[in-house]
Design a protein that fits this description.
alpha+beta; five-stranded mixed sheet; four-stranded antiparallel sheet; 17 strands; elongated; disordered C terminus
Length: 555
């Protein structure tokens, strides 16, 4: 069984590289398509890879020899009872076969190391599930009835029939969805008081989109495949692409429900400040990692899907090179292994050669040994001539056959170089597109900075306006007081005239009514007159009325 597992893991490497090439083609071909189409295609490739590895394991299991240890032992070629250094040439054994023998010999060790790492990762996954339940049961409180009503309304609009709970948790720093059959949306404590309701509604619409699409269950299965094939870079790359497209799909659903891109972008920017790097990978989080965050902002603003960057282009070029080399080696090995040459037996010289054995064996015969001077010639349609005189062996090249092989190798090499050149050209095109995207992102950042500067200037102008409005209010109050005081002076003048304290208005030169006395034209009035005017016009400690000059009760 260890051999079957080992070879399944080995085959998964080139299968993953081939998977990466198909994923690159999908990204390039669907650069203007909807995120949902890209998500389904990439997920289909991921499922195809998992199915291919399962079929590979079943095939390897059914082809395990009866004696696994004996089958894995390397075969030694003997000529006259002695192994020689040219055995790999004589049996048609390539470096690929030598590597296969090495892997078969050390299959148990390789599977043991893989199993130890796998066990550690499974323990981490189990801890993540346990911690999810811990978050749900500790320091989590239900939200108010108003928000529960909004959640119910959003569920109805998104046609979600399963019950969805929303809890406010003090153990997380960003919104996340846990669970499939009974999903729970966790909101960081204090979040609802810090963000506008429109942004919170956009966040809830995004998280409910994950619930409607059953993303938690799919993400859990995706994590299991990543755990098993943790050594395969192609699996990790494709898995990250699937996660990015999943977030894009939910962003589109949230925008369709809220009808406002700005609120979702502002919510992403706000929550990126709360995001932490050690959150559970089983959760479906809102802002995502740094690359996902930047790609989501750019896609929402520019309405354009991400393409392959320079590092990914280099990875695909290396994948194409490795797959091409493995294909070439397999074709050559297949051509050598399928040569239909009848077995040649030489009893006279005591050497038996059979082409139909795999790998080819050269064994001693029980017939008498040849004399020292009798040469032994072993011929094979696909191998060089091997000559032995009993003391030493030498290889005689079969020139016509080797020339044909060299021509074929050169043709295959030219085809491979042509494919690499085409891939490099495509990589340059992709790099140019990436540079264009970077330039647009820089322009977007500059525009954002200008917008921020305008907002700051607007805020400063608004602050100045508020200060001026306050001063105007003060001036208005002061003017109102002056008007009231002037009206009181006119009324005092009228009362002076009515009580005949002066002969006429022309005789009234000045008056002063204070808390101490009432003086008209420099003459202090009687206490009775003073008390009457004081009771009528002086009501506070600051009230005092003074006037000088010519007065008229009509003005």
């Amino acid at each position: 069984m260890s051999t079957a597992i080992c070879w399944t893991l080995v085959h998964s490497i080139w299968q993953g590289l081939l998977l990466a090439l198909f994923a690159g083609i999908v990204l390039f071909a669907t650069r203007t398509s909807r995120p949902a189409l890209r998500y389904y295609l990439l997920s289909g490739l991921f499922v195809l890879f998992a199915g291919a590895t399962l079929v590979t394991f079943i095939w390897e299991w059914n082809n395990i020899p009866a004696d696994e240890t004996a089958a894995a032992m390397p075969q030694l070629t003997e000529v006259n009872g002695r192994p020689h250094a040219f055995d790999s040439i004589a049996t048609g054994e390539s470096y690929l076969q030598q590597l296969a023998q090495f892997l078969s010999l050390h299959a148990l060790l390789i599977v043991s190391v893989w199993g130890c790492i796998l066990s550690y990762r499974l323990v981490r996954t189990g801890y993540a599930i346990f911690y999810t339940r811990y978050i749900r049961d500790h320091r989590s409180t239900p939200l108010t009835a108003d928000w529960q009503q909004r959640l119910t309304s959003l569920c109805a609009r998104l046609k979600i029939s399963k019950p969805v709970r929303m809890l406010e948790s003090g153990l997380i720093q960003m919104p996340a969805v846990f669970g499939h059959w009974k999903p729970v949306i966790f909101i960081p404590a204090g979040l609802l008081a810090q963000l506008p309701p429109d942004q919170v509604e956009a966040i809830l619409a995004h998280e409910l989109a994950h619930v409607r699409r059953s993303d938690f269950l799919i993400n859990l299965l995706q994590n299991m495949v990543e755990t098993i094939f943790f050594f395969n870079p192609a699996v990790w790359w494709l898995s990250s692409l699937i996660r990015q497209e999943r977030e894009h799909c939910c962003d589109d659903i949230a925008i369709a429900q809220t009808g406002d891109k700005k609120q979702l972008v502002r919510a992403l920017v706000s929550f990126k400040q709360f995001a932490i790097t050690n959150h559970s990978r089983l959760a479906v989080g809102f802002p995502g990692d740094r690359n996902s965050f930047i790609n989501r902002i750019a896609r929402i603003v520019q309405n354009k899907n991400r393409t392959i960057n320079s590092a990914e282009s280099l990875f695909l070029a290396l994948s194409l090179t490795v797959v091409g080399m493995l294909t070439l080696a397999f074709v050559q090995h297949n051509q050598q292994g399928n040569g239909q040459v009848p077995p040649v037996t030489s009893k006279t010289h005591g050497v038996q050669v059979s082409k139909n054995t795999a790998p080819a064996l050269i064994t001693r015969d029980t017939t008498p040994k040849p004399s020292k001077d009798t040469p032994i010639i072993i011929r094979d349609a696909k191998l060089p001539k091997i000559v032995s005189d009993g003391k030493k062996a030498q290889v005689v090249a079969d020139t016509p056959h080797m020339d044909a092989d060299n021509v074929q190798l050169r043709a295959e090499k030219e085809e491979l170089e042509t494919a690499i050149k085409e891939m490099n050209a495509k990589r340059e095109d992709l790099e140019a597109v990436q540079r264009e995207i970077n330039a647009k992102q820089e322009q977007l950042e500059i525009a954002q900075k200008e917008t921020n500067a305008k907002q700051e200037r607007l805020a400063a102008a608004q602050k100045d306006m508020e200060i001026k409005q306050k001063q105007l209010m003060i001036d208005r109050e002061q003017l109102e007081k002056e008007k009231q005081k002037l009206q009181a002076i006119r009324e005092i003048m009228e009362d002076i005239m009515k009580q005949h304290l002066v002969g006429s208005a022309k005789e009234l030169k000045s008056f002063s009514l204070t808390h101490e006395a009432f003086i008209i034209n420099g003459e202090k009035q009687t206490a009775e007159v003073y008390q009457w005017f004081k009771n009528k016009y002086i009501h506070s400690a600051t009230d005092a009325y003074q006037a000088e000059g010519q007065f008229s009760v009509d003005h």
